UniProtKB/TrEMBL annotation:
<keyword id="KW-1133">Transmembrane helix</keyword>
<keyword id="KW-0812">Transmembrane</keyword>
<dbReference type="GO" id="GO:0016020">
    <property type="term" value="C:membrane"/>
</dbReference>
<protein>
    <submittedName>
        <fullName>Tryptophan-rich sensory protein [Gordonia sp. KTR9]</fullName>
    </submittedName>
</protein>
<dbReference type="InterPro" id="IPR038330">
    <property type="entry name" value="TspO/MBR-related_sf"/>
</dbReference>
<dbReference type="Pfam" id="PF03073">
    <property type="entry name" value="TspO_MBR"/>
</dbReference>
<dbReference type="InterPro" id="IPR004307">
    <property type="entry name" value="TspO_MBR"/>
</dbReference>
<feature type="transmembrane region" description="Helical">
    <location>
        <begin position="136"/>
        <end position="157"/>
    </location>
</feature>
<dbReference type="GO" id="GO:0033013">
    <property type="term" value="P:tetrapyrrole metabolic process"/>
</dbReference>
<comment type="similarity">
    <text>Belongs to the TspO/BZRP family.</text>
</comment>
<keyword id="KW-0472">Membrane</keyword>
Length: 160
């Protein structure tokens, strides 16, 4: 993988984390968030930054390897399509925090989480079609997003 491609995918992942964090950090300390009813299966707060940082690193590396692999095959159109799918995915990723924490729209946040899970599965599928091991490495991302969808939906349901 080329450093320039990795720098671009890592830059996108870092920007996503920063943008999402701007909405998340103040909200998790708010009385609104503390008063929300949460399901028993919600992980401890310390788990979220650990998991997301690992996933962002995974997304960056796998995406760079996939884009470069497609370009090396001479399939520039597929590389551009993957890049667009990645950009959409990262936009959905960052937007969930803003919908949930900043706008406090629990139902719409559950919908965004579901869209993110589908988008993440699509990225893993695309990566796996180029490098099966890379697709397998990215499988944790849609699994986590699926869990996040269940968690987000349950929080919405408990607080309707």
């Amino acid at each position: 993988m080329r450093f320039s491609t990795l720098a671009k995918t890592a830059g996108g992942s870092i920007a996503t984390g920063v943008i999402g964090g701007l909405a998340t950090r103040p909200a998790v300390q708010s009385s609104w968030y503390r008063r929300l009813r949460k399901p028993s299966f919600q992980p401890p707060p310390a788990a979220f930054p650990i998991v997301w940082n690992l996933l962002y690193a995974d997304i960056s590396g796998v995406s760079a390897k996939t884009i470069d692999g497609l370009e090396e095959r001479g399939d520039a159109a597929a590389a551009r399509a993957y890049s667009r799918a990645l950009a959409l995915n990262l936009a959905l990723n960052a937007s969930w925090s803003w919908v949930f924490f900043n706008r406090r729209k629990l139902g719409p946040a559950a919908v965004v989480a579901g869209a993110l899970a589908v988008s993440s599965a699509d990225l893993a599928r695309r990566a796996g079609s180029v490098h099966p091991a890379a697709g397998a490495a990215l499988a944790a991302y849609p699994l986590w997003c699926g869990f996040a969808t269940v968690l987000s939906t349950r929080i919405w349901w408990l607080n309707r």
